[in-house]
Amino acid sequence: MLISRGFKGKRREGPADRVPPGQYLTDDFPVLSAGPTPHTPLEEWTFTIEGGAEPVRWSWEEFQALPSETITTDIHCVTKWSKLDTTWEGVAVDTLLEAVDHDAAYALAFCDGGYTTNLPLEDLIDGKGWVAYAYDGEELDPEHGGPARLLVPHLYFWKSAKWVRGLVLRDDDEPGFWESNGYHLRGDPWLEQRYWGD
Amino acid sequence: MRTLELGTQGWPGHRAGQHLDVRLTAEDGYQAQRSYSIASAPGDGLALTVERLEDGEVSPYLVDEAREGDQLEIRGPIGGYFVWDGDEPEPVLLVAGGSGVVPLMAMARHRVRLGSETPMRLVYSSRTWDEVVYRDELETLGLDVVHTLTREQPLGWTGYSRRIDAELLAEVAWPASESPRVYVCGSTRFVDAAADGLLALGYEAGWIRTERFGATG
Amino acid sequence: MTGIAELRLDGNAVGGLLGELFGLDLTAAPSTCGDCGAREQMACLDVYVGAGIVVRCCHCDAVMVRIVQGRGRTWLDLRGVASLELEE
Predict the structure, then answer these.
(1) Left if phi > 0, otherwise alpha if psi is -120 to 50, otherwise beta: which for C46?
(2) Cβ separation of C7 and A34 shorter than 8 Å?
(3) Res. A156: pLDDT tops 70
């Protein structure tokens, strides 16, 4: 490995109790994407939970009428940047699951544009997951996943699926878009679960 | 902007339009990598022209810090599509947005070294006159150069002062009847607009080769 | 902040990476989209940089290639490429 004399890079390190191993701090909000930004009109937008006794669906209006929360949290991207104290508003997955009769252990989130990501249900409930539609006090920008994205900040941010349209509840853990090609099935940044085999 | 001349021991040579991947490694193993087009003509050494991006990770190092004697880890030369070898018969249209001029400059310089008579024209969009790279050298290469300055123009400027569009291209591009060979390089937005403009003139998609630069550096 | 339009690059951007993996330059190699059948050179395909790299058909946006790199390994998902043409 050739060390480049004098090269340091822009990265900043942060407090070890806030910044997981191998991560660096950023002040901006890098935009990363697996594809073109979808633009589903709100009149057509729905959020669906399948895999329970029967599918449950909310329109945008119905979704907005659900009780929401404001969360301030840190987020960690597998590409090594972390951003502290980000503020979001959204509906807790706990709230959504109250409407569903199920005994599933896993979920597969699906999105406009075809992206998917899988999670143990454990990682979505008990105040760990939201469907967020506002960031930093404003409507969530399409380039950051608006109108709504999944928010699961205790896992690497590829799990916080942009343009989310629903969850499929499952008995087994079906790998999603990235998990089927090298990224870790679970993705806990504090255990540095970035890749298969970590 | 800074042009870095790299030593070429063991360098296999390159084709006009190709690029290199440059990888930097910090002492603690942290790495960053970016791609840079080769500015020099084949046979004329190995030079990169790097635009310093304010928020960049690699370009500030290359422009501000790298000095003679430093070693750079590179991969390449890369590219078998966005290349001009000089034996193609068609007239060439080069369309550059900002730092997108770099690989096109390699082509223009290559044409001079070959003593080629192939007609070549460059349409070059920059924000200001100060930001035009290779400004003086472009006058000496025996090709038609059309500048457009999109943000600010010097006093007395009579040239174009807007972003490249179909109308501008209609005035300066080769007519479609010449079946020109086109190379467009710049940001995604620039390349898409230029390519659309050329298609509107009746150019065929197969004549147009594009290379999109990312905004990161 | 980078606008999303600028996030779409083209196959030139993965030329070095694929060249190193395959031992030959693939930027001019035509591939056929498994979804719509369009045949285009790698350099013409759309490339997005997310958590990993995604190469999409420039006609129908179907995912053709997914690339993840980490811990000294590269994972390549080529399911969306029906056929890749290489010159001898």
Answers:
(1) beta
(2) no
(3) yes
